[in-house]
UniProtKB/TrEMBL annotation:
InterPro entries noted in UniProt: DNA_glyclase_Znf_dom_DNA_BS (IPR015887), FPG_cat (IPR012319), FPG_Glyclase (IPR020629), FPG_N (IPR035937), H2TH_FPG (IPR015886), Ribosomal_uS13-like_H2TH (IPR010979), Znf_DNA_glyclase/AP_lyase (IPR000214), Znf_FPG/IleRS (IPR010663)
Membrane-crossing segments per the record: none
Protein name (database record): Formamidopyrimidine-DNA glycosylase
Reactions catalysed according to its record: Hydrolysis of DNA containing ring-opened 7-methylguanine residues, releasing 2,6-diamino-4-hydroxy-5-(N-methyl)formamidopyrimidine; 2'-deoxyribonucleotide-(2'-deoxyribose 5'-phosphate)-2'-deoxyribonucleotide-DNA = a 3'-end 2'-deoxyribonucleotide-(2,3-dehydro-2,3-deoxyribose 5'-phosphate)-DNA + a 5'-end 5'-phospho-2'-deoxyribonucleoside-DNA + H(+)
Source superkingdom: Bacteria
Bound cofactor: record note: Binds 1 zinc ion per subunit.
Lineage: Bacteria, Pseudomonadati, Pseudomonadota, Alphaproteobacteria, Rhodobacterales
List of residues binding DNA: H100, R119, R162
Organism whose genome encodes this protein: Yoonia sediminilitoris
Formamidopyrimidine-DNA glycosylase catalytic domain: residues covered: 2-122
Length: 283
Protein backbone atom coordinates (compact mmCIF):
# COMPACT_ATOMS: atom_id res chain seq x y z
CA UNK A 1 0.00 0.00 0.00
CA UNK A 2 1.24 3.49 -0.68
CA UNK A 3 2.03 5.50 2.40
CA UNK A 4 2.17 9.23 2.90
CA UNK A 5 5.60 9.81 1.26
CA UNK A 6 4.69 7.81 -1.86
CA UNK A 7 1.41 9.68 -2.27
CA UNK A 8 3.25 12.97 -1.79
CA UNK A 9 5.66 11.92 -4.55
CA UNK A 10 2.84 11.00 -6.92
CA UNK A 11 1.19 14.35 -6.20
CA UNK A 12 4.44 16.17 -6.90
CA UNK A 13 4.77 14.30 -10.20
CA UNK A 14 1.21 15.09 -11.28
CA UNK A 15 1.18 18.75 -10.24
CA UNK A 16 3.13 20.15 -13.24
CA UNK A 17 0.78 18.51 -15.76
CA UNK A 18 -2.52 18.92 -13.87
CA UNK A 19 -2.49 22.19 -11.91
CA UNK A 20 -4.03 25.03 -13.88
CA UNK A 21 -4.88 22.67 -16.73
CA UNK A 22 -8.28 21.88 -18.25
CA UNK A 23 -9.61 18.34 -18.66
CA UNK A 24 -10.77 18.25 -22.29
CA UNK A 25 -12.13 14.71 -22.10
CA UNK A 26 -12.41 12.00 -19.46
CA UNK A 27 -12.68 8.33 -20.41
CA UNK A 28 -14.18 6.21 -17.66
CA UNK A 29 -13.85 2.66 -18.89
CA UNK A 30 -15.67 0.74 -16.18
CA UNK A 31 -18.31 1.47 -13.52
CA UNK A 32 -16.07 0.94 -10.51
CA UNK A 33 -12.71 0.20 -9.00
CA UNK A 34 -12.74 -0.75 -5.33
CA UNK A 35 -16.01 1.17 -5.04
CA UNK A 36 -18.42 2.43 -7.73
CA UNK A 37 -17.35 5.64 -9.45
CA UNK A 38 -19.59 8.62 -8.66
CA UNK A 39 -22.58 9.35 -10.92
CA UNK A 40 -21.74 10.95 -14.27
CA UNK A 41 -18.05 11.12 -13.36
CA UNK A 42 -16.83 11.69 -16.94
CA UNK A 43 -19.35 14.50 -17.46
CA UNK A 44 -18.46 16.17 -14.14
CA UNK A 45 -14.75 16.18 -15.07
CA UNK A 46 -15.04 17.27 -18.68
CA UNK A 47 -14.23 20.93 -19.34
CA UNK A 48 -13.18 21.55 -15.74
CA UNK A 49 -9.97 23.30 -14.80
CA UNK A 50 -7.86 21.79 -12.01
CA UNK A 51 -7.07 24.62 -9.63
CA UNK A 52 -4.63 22.78 -7.37
CA UNK A 53 -3.53 19.37 -6.17
CA UNK A 54 -3.35 18.54 -2.50
CA UNK A 55 -2.74 15.50 -0.35
CA UNK A 56 -4.79 14.39 2.64
CA UNK A 57 -3.55 11.21 4.29
CA UNK A 58 -3.05 8.70 1.45
CA UNK A 59 -5.32 10.51 -1.01
CA UNK A 60 -4.48 12.94 -3.78
CA UNK A 61 -7.16 15.65 -4.01
CA UNK A 62 -7.67 17.73 -7.15
CA UNK A 63 -9.78 20.86 -6.63
CA UNK A 64 -11.80 21.73 -9.75
CA UNK A 65 -13.21 25.09 -10.80
CA UNK A 66 -16.69 23.54 -10.50
CA UNK A 67 -16.38 23.64 -6.67
CA UNK A 68 -15.94 19.87 -6.70
CA UNK A 69 -12.85 17.92 -5.66
CA UNK A 70 -11.64 14.71 -7.30
CA UNK A 71 -10.26 12.18 -4.81
CA UNK A 72 -7.68 9.72 -6.16
CA UNK A 73 -6.49 6.67 -4.24
CA UNK A 74 -3.90 4.40 -5.84
CA UNK A 75 -4.78 1.35 -3.75
CA UNK A 76 -2.42 -1.64 -3.93
CA UNK A 77 -1.33 -1.50 -7.54
CA UNK A 78 -2.57 1.78 -9.02
CA UNK A 79 -0.24 3.71 -11.32
CA UNK A 80 -0.52 7.08 -13.01
CA UNK A 81 1.00 7.25 -16.46
CA UNK A 82 1.80 10.66 -17.91
CA UNK A 83 2.22 10.79 -21.68
CA UNK A 84 2.57 13.37 -24.40
CA UNK A 85 4.36 15.58 -21.94
CA UNK A 86 7.82 16.99 -22.27
CA UNK A 87 9.92 16.96 -19.12
CA UNK A 88 13.10 18.82 -19.95
CA UNK A 89 14.41 16.95 -22.97
CA UNK A 90 12.19 13.94 -22.42
CA UNK A 91 8.99 13.21 -24.28
CA UNK A 92 6.71 10.29 -23.53
CA UNK A 93 4.60 9.30 -26.53
CA UNK A 94 1.01 8.22 -25.83
CA UNK A 95 1.02 4.45 -25.28
CA UNK A 96 -1.46 2.12 -26.96
CA UNK A 97 -4.51 1.55 -24.73
CA UNK A 98 -3.61 -1.17 -22.27
CA UNK A 99 -5.49 -3.62 -20.13
CA UNK A 100 -6.45 -2.06 -16.77
CA UNK A 101 -6.45 1.52 -18.12
CA UNK A 102 -9.57 2.40 -16.15
CA UNK A 103 -9.66 6.19 -16.30
CA UNK A 104 -7.93 8.41 -18.87
CA UNK A 105 -7.84 12.20 -18.54
CA UNK A 106 -7.10 13.98 -21.81
CA UNK A 107 -5.85 17.43 -20.89
CA UNK A 108 -6.40 20.33 -23.25
CA UNK A 109 -2.60 20.82 -23.20
CA UNK A 110 -2.19 17.51 -25.03
CA UNK A 111 -0.99 15.63 -21.97
CA UNK A 112 -2.75 12.40 -21.14
CA UNK A 113 -2.98 11.00 -17.61
CA UNK A 114 -3.88 7.33 -17.41
CA UNK A 115 -4.95 5.59 -14.19
CA UNK A 116 -4.01 1.93 -14.57
CA UNK A 117 -4.85 -0.47 -11.74
CA UNK A 118 -4.55 -4.22 -12.27
CA UNK A 119 -5.91 -5.25 -8.89
CA UNK A 120 -8.57 -2.54 -8.67
CA UNK A 121 -8.09 -1.63 -5.02
CA UNK A 122 -7.76 2.00 -6.08
CA UNK A 123 -10.59 4.51 -6.00
CA UNK A 124 -11.81 7.78 -7.45
CA UNK A 125 -14.63 9.89 -6.09
CA UNK A 126 -16.03 13.39 -6.45
CA UNK A 127 -17.20 15.58 -3.60
CA UNK A 128 -18.12 19.19 -2.97
CA UNK A 129 -14.84 20.91 -2.11
CA UNK A 130 -16.51 22.77 0.77
CA UNK A 131 -17.69 19.47 2.26
CA UNK A 132 -14.48 17.49 1.86
CA UNK A 133 -13.96 17.07 5.60
CA UNK A 134 -17.28 15.20 5.75
CA UNK A 135 -16.33 12.67 3.07
CA UNK A 136 -16.61 9.16 4.46
CA UNK A 137 -12.95 8.34 3.69
CA UNK A 138 -11.71 11.54 5.34
CA UNK A 139 -13.99 12.47 8.25
CA UNK A 140 -12.55 10.02 10.83
CA UNK A 141 -8.88 10.57 9.99
CA UNK A 142 -6.50 11.84 12.64
CA UNK A 143 -4.15 14.78 12.04
CA UNK A 144 -1.44 14.88 9.41
CA UNK A 145 1.92 13.87 10.95
CA UNK A 146 3.63 16.79 9.18
CA UNK A 147 0.87 19.26 10.05
CA UNK A 148 0.38 21.74 12.88
CA UNK A 149 -2.22 19.66 14.74
CA UNK A 150 0.24 16.89 15.49
CA UNK A 151 2.66 17.47 18.34
CA UNK A 152 4.07 15.92 21.54
CA UNK A 153 1.08 16.88 23.71
CA UNK A 154 -1.35 15.34 21.23
CA UNK A 155 0.50 12.03 20.90
CA UNK A 156 1.06 11.63 24.64
CA UNK A 157 -2.66 12.22 25.27
CA UNK A 158 -3.69 9.79 22.52
CA UNK A 159 -1.49 6.93 23.73
CA UNK A 160 -2.10 7.36 27.45
CA UNK A 161 -3.86 4.34 28.99
CA UNK A 162 -4.05 2.67 25.59
CA UNK A 163 -3.77 -1.08 25.96
CA UNK A 164 -2.90 -1.89 22.33
CA UNK A 165 0.63 -2.54 21.05
CA UNK A 166 2.38 0.66 19.96
CA UNK A 167 2.62 -0.76 16.43
CA UNK A 168 -1.18 -0.97 16.17
CA UNK A 169 -1.67 2.45 17.76
CA UNK A 170 0.61 4.14 15.23
CA UNK A 171 -1.15 2.34 12.37
CA UNK A 172 -4.55 3.55 13.62
CA UNK A 173 -5.51 6.22 11.10
CA UNK A 174 -7.88 7.82 13.62
CA UNK A 175 -4.86 8.67 15.81
CA UNK A 176 -2.50 9.68 13.02
CA UNK A 177 -3.26 9.57 9.30
CA UNK A 178 -0.84 8.51 6.61
CA UNK A 179 1.55 6.21 8.46
CA UNK A 180 1.54 2.61 7.25
CA UNK A 181 3.38 -0.59 8.01
CA UNK A 182 6.73 0.37 6.47
CA UNK A 183 7.22 3.72 8.16
CA UNK A 184 5.85 2.56 11.53
CA UNK A 185 8.58 -0.13 11.53
CA UNK A 186 11.20 2.53 10.71
CA UNK A 187 9.91 4.93 13.40
CA UNK A 188 9.93 2.28 16.14
CA UNK A 189 13.44 1.18 15.22
CA UNK A 190 14.79 4.72 15.43
CA UNK A 191 12.87 5.31 18.66
CA UNK A 192 14.21 2.07 20.19
CA UNK A 193 10.71 0.88 21.05
CA UNK A 194 9.63 -2.76 20.70
CA UNK A 195 6.60 -3.06 18.38
CA UNK A 196 4.72 -5.22 20.89
CA UNK A 197 5.10 -2.83 23.81
CA UNK A 198 1.74 -1.59 25.07
CA UNK A 199 1.25 2.02 23.99
CA UNK A 200 0.02 3.12 27.42
CA UNK A 201 3.11 1.69 29.15
CA UNK A 202 5.61 3.85 27.27
CA UNK A 203 6.77 6.87 29.26
CA UNK A 204 5.54 10.30 28.14
CA UNK A 205 9.15 11.26 27.51
CA UNK A 206 9.71 8.38 25.07
CA UNK A 207 6.36 9.01 23.37
CA UNK A 208 7.22 12.69 22.93
CA UNK A 209 10.59 11.71 21.45
CA UNK A 210 8.77 9.80 18.71
CA UNK A 211 7.22 12.97 17.29
CA UNK A 212 10.38 14.40 15.68
CA UNK A 213 11.37 10.88 14.60
CA UNK A 214 8.03 10.43 12.79
CA UNK A 215 8.53 13.78 11.05
CA UNK A 216 12.14 12.96 10.11
CA UNK A 217 11.35 9.50 8.72
CA UNK A 218 8.55 10.91 6.54
CA UNK A 219 10.47 13.99 5.43
CA UNK A 220 13.48 11.90 4.41
CA UNK A 221 11.25 9.51 2.45
CA UNK A 222 9.54 12.41 0.67
CA UNK A 223 12.94 13.84 -0.26
CA UNK A 224 14.06 10.43 -1.57
CA UNK A 225 10.83 10.19 -3.57
CA UNK A 226 11.46 13.60 -5.07
CA UNK A 227 14.88 12.59 -6.32
CA UNK A 228 13.70 9.24 -7.68
CA UNK A 229 10.78 11.06 -9.32
CA UNK A 230 13.01 12.66 -11.92
CA UNK A 231 14.54 9.31 -12.87
CA UNK A 232 11.19 7.52 -13.12
CA UNK A 233 9.53 10.28 -15.08
CA UNK A 234 12.45 10.48 -17.42
CA UNK A 235 12.50 6.73 -17.85
CA UNK A 236 8.91 6.02 -18.77
CA UNK A 237 6.55 8.72 -17.51
CA UNK A 238 5.11 6.41 -14.90
CA UNK A 239 4.24 7.36 -11.34
CA UNK A 240 3.86 4.47 -8.94
CA UNK A 241 5.72 3.31 -5.88
CA UNK A 242 9.28 4.06 -5.06
CA UNK A 243 11.14 1.72 -2.78
CA UNK A 244 13.70 3.50 -0.66
CA UNK A 245 16.48 2.05 1.39
CA UNK A 246 15.00 1.10 4.72
CA UNK A 247 16.90 0.63 7.99
CA UNK A 248 14.75 -2.19 9.31
CA UNK A 249 11.75 -2.84 7.05
CA UNK A 250 12.07 -6.02 4.97
CA UNK A 251 15.53 -6.75 6.40
CA UNK A 252 14.73 -9.93 8.38
CA UNK A 253 17.89 -11.94 9.07
CA UNK A 254 20.19 -9.08 8.08
CA UNK A 255 22.48 -7.28 10.51
CA UNK A 256 21.08 -4.52 12.69
CA UNK A 257 22.52 -1.23 11.45
CA UNK A 258 23.13 0.19 14.93
CA UNK A 259 26.91 0.41 15.46
CA UNK A 260 28.19 -2.23 17.92
CA UNK A 261 24.89 -4.18 17.79
CA UNK A 262 25.51 -7.80 16.74
CA UNK A 263 21.86 -8.84 16.42
CA UNK A 264 19.98 -9.75 13.27
CA UNK A 265 16.68 -8.08 12.39
CA UNK A 266 13.67 -10.15 13.50
CA UNK A 267 10.34 -10.47 11.70
CA UNK A 268 7.12 -11.21 13.53
CA UNK A 269 3.48 -10.96 12.45
CA UNK A 270 1.16 -8.59 14.32
CA UNK A 271 -2.49 -8.32 13.31
CA UNK A 272 -1.62 -9.97 10.01
CA UNK A 273 1.16 -7.51 9.18
CA UNK A 274 4.91 -8.05 9.28
CA UNK A 275 6.87 -6.21 11.96
CA UNK A 276 10.64 -5.91 11.60
CA UNK A 277 12.72 -4.96 14.62
CA UNK A 278 15.95 -5.48 16.55
CA UNK A 279 15.38 -7.38 19.82
CA UNK A 280 18.52 -5.79 21.27
CA UNK A 281 17.93 -2.14 20.32
CA UNK A 282 14.14 -2.02 20.74
CA UNK A 283 12.67 -2.50 24.20
ZN1 LIG B 1 20.24 -3.67 17.11
Amino acid sequence: MPELPEVETVKAGLAPVMEGQVIAQADVNRPDLRWPFPDRMAERLTGKRILRLRRRSKYVLADLDSAETLLIHLGMSGRMLISGHTVGDFHHPHPAPAKHDHVVLHMRSGTRITFNDARRFGAMDLMQTAQQDDHWLIRDLGPEPLGNHFDETYLVAQLKNRNTPIKSALLDQRILSGLGNIYVCEVLYRAGIHPKRKAGQISAKRVAAMVPIIRDVLTEAIAAGGSSLRDYRQADGELGYFQHGFQVYDRAGENCLTPECKKKITRIVQSGRSSFFCSQCQR
